[in-house]
Amino acid sequence: MPSVRSVKAKGLIIGGGFPVSIQTMWKEPLRADALEAAAARVRGLAELGCDVLRFAVPALGDAEVLGRLAAMVEMPLVADIHFDWRIALACLDHPIAKIRINPGNIGERWKVEEVTKKARDKGVPIRIGVNGGSLPQDLRERLERGEIDRAGALVAAAEREVAAFEELGFSDVVVSMKASSVAETLEVNRRFARAHDYPLHLGVTEAGPLVPGIVKNTAALVPLLEEGIGDTIRVSISDTMETEVAAGREILAAAGKGRAGITLVSCPRCARAGFDTHAFTARWAARLYALKTEATIAVMGCVVNGPGEARHADLGITGAGDKVVIFRKGKIARTILREEADTVFEEELRAFE
Amino acid sequence: MPSVRSVKAKGLIIGGGFPVSIQTMWKEPLRADALEAAAARVRGLAELGCDVLRFAVPALGDAEVLGRLAAMVEMPLVADIHFDWRIALACLDHPIAKIRINPGNIGERWKVEEVTKKARDKGVPIRIGVNGGSLPQDLRERLERGEIDRAGALVAAAEREVAAFEELGFSDVVVSMKASSVAETLEVNRRFARAHDYPLHLGVTEAGPLVPGIVKNTAALVPLLEEGIGDTIRVSISDTMETEVAAGREILAAAGKGRAGITLVSCPRCARAGFDTHAFTARWAARLYALKTEATIAVMGCVVNGPGEARHADLGITGAGDKVVIFRKGKIARTILREEADTVFEEELRAFE
Fold first, then answer.
1. Across the interface, which of A26, A223, A268 has its CB nearest the CB of B238?
2. Could you report the predicted ipTM of this complex, rounded to two decimals?
């Protein structure tokens, strides 16, 4: 069931059948004396396909720094608040696009109420982020006593918060329920989506380093997205933000929710390779992913699969002995020397800009 | 439908309901003067969970070098042959566990017949590897004229080869049909598995660099494995063999076909982190993945999710201010200084050996 409701975070609509957006999260302290560099990195993330960027705001003073950055960039920035509701209030004095709170650790109800009041005044949506690692005490105890399963505890925690927000008359919310296993992630989001029409933020929490992290996120998110569940995603891995965004793009594409852009096919290399595809794709990946044209580009090492794959790609480059062959839409365009590969490839890429 | 037939590659059974095996492929020329180093790397791959290792054998002289390596290691080694059937014959003079040929580029039928005869004499199975990039001429033409789709062309190519092998009385085969898209990979393997009971080798060809490669392979292989399709997998990405094997392990685990081993949960790091989980997990990943005990180990940066996740793990390590806390099966075991983390973690790991 696709979400019916939607929220607006700066210029971005989450839910309501709008394209699924990609998020990542800033991984270092945000330094007041390095905001120009931070803004440049935010713009770079936008080029790669990032739609929303979240920042932990661990101390009251950090709210103003984040606010200054938010004023410098187009991207909607989200403040992630734990424990102290006053930080959420402080963030709302700045052009923050969305607040994420984990009500399970904010404390008394009146604190949450103060946050929702100010968020409504400012027209700022809130994500209710429930997490397997920080469930409310009573649900954790019921879980430990075996009265509910982990998925049930997560859904119950989210439903309780949504109900509390509804009592406060605040429905401008996005919900996330994050577990660290694929099966639980599938289960909690399916259960919630059957019963509610709030926009859902999908992700697997603490998914681990790069390889297991991407595998778990793909295995959990692709089926959900194919079922129409999920309005915004964050691929959370112990790696860079840029990698998280690239993984998000690929997951959307694999689920048939991709946006226009380059599909890169490249070979894994073997003893036959006459052309170093690893180094070539590493050198060109960021440039290729910043292109918004729908096209397939093939980077192949050798003549076994090279010309075959390259032939059905819009642009192909493949090794052939000590030469390199460029294909365009199924036809050999040029045969060049290996040293010319980068220069010629850049010339060819201009057609996709 | 699970495969009924099976083949035996050295000590490894592929098919017949046996555990799904993990393969990777050697990515450089195999040098005769560096076989000790190669053997050490093969043993390292075995530690990480690799069951079968394939080598391109581009020239006749390479067969003997591969044969010498095969005699040095326990792992079944596979010779990958294109174009020249005489190389396949030469490989069969050595303790090679399996031959992979792409009959589409071997040429006349009598050449394939010679290979099957000698393979039968030696008790060596053959993988028929059909590839979207190197389809037989007539099928490529029918595809280009729009008479069949790409999935249909791949399945037809595989069925033609299987029939030819059956005519030669040789059924000791594994089949692979590799396409570069997720949808085609799903489609060709489902179609083939409905009609045939040969063991299937799964993979996405030319899946691209690390991130798109892992996403595509996960999106294609997890559903197939969950449906009981697939007896051996190779995650083909433009990255190291070790990464391919790690991705294979994670894909099997996500599909519920995993083997005993460590599940690593770790956090993506944010501005709250008091403990560098990226560096810590990078340092420890290979050691953790070599452990064969079924256990969950959590590496967390901070107190928000850290103790929660770490608590349900068998072993957990998490930052807490300038200290580091070790959890064992839900109980705080030790609070230590950050500098002691590696030493103490190694002590704790001994319980899992």
1. A268
2. 0.87
